[in-house]
Fold this sequence. Notes:
Elements: H1 12-32, H2 38-58, H3 61-84, H4 86-92, H5 97-131, H6 136-141
Helix pairs in contact: 1-2, 1-5, 2-5, 3-5, 4-5
Amino acid sequence: MRDVKYTQTVPLWTVFTLSLACFAVAGFIDTATASAYSLTAGVLVVSGVYGIARVARAVSRPLLARLSLGLWLVFIAIAAVHAIGLTTVGAVVPAPTDGVVATVVGLTWATLVGACSTTTFLGLREYAASSQTTVVEDIVEQEYDYDY
């Protein structure tokens, strides 16, 4: 009789969402407190990057490229909110200003660190794919001396 171990796997998009949530919470912690919880924010960022690495390893390169591009576009849209001014946006939105500022900062962290990590892992995959190919000219131009 075989020993079968059943493992429960977490779907990739859940891991991706949790990674972005880790980045957002780390951004909120880092801006809300001076530096008392910087270690906690660092641990959250490292765990988020680990989750992004798991997702990047499991998806195809075109999907990872689209994901990276999408995160960069969302980051640019959030940067426009920063250009207007966080307190100005907080005053316009019918919610507490501190809550709006914390939310925008958390979204900024999530999209920026997510975009940087997905782009880095995409670059590493492209580099690994290009280093495994052999150039045909190198093989053809070599002279072989066969001794029969």
